[in-house]
Amino acid sequence: MFQALIGKCIALMYILIVLATAGSLAAKRRRAPGPGTLSTHGPLFVGLLLATVLVTGALTSLPAVALERTAEELQMRAQQRSIVTLIGQQAIPDSNFGEEIDRSGGVSFELAP
What we know:
Blueprint: H1 2-27, H2 43-80, E1 83-85, E2 92-93, E3 100-101, E4 108-110
Antiparallel strand pairs: 1-4, 2-3
């Protein structure tokens, strides 16, 4: 109960800070555009906004796409390690990247996960 009260107080403080910032911005006087003002009605603003959205989206999703194949490879290697022989003896691991060789002469099969 105490943690919920703290959480609500933090949320209330956040709301008050946002409202204070909005009130401060609303109270400012409007100025005439100067030479360094970026117009929001031109193609430059649209291009910069679009580039920002695309770069942010790429930086968010590309690491997941890049790590997908690595995760698949690790999952396949984990499945290869679960191979056992029909007679119940563990297969002897080989040094070829996780491949296992059955040296007992029995038939090997893969266990269901």
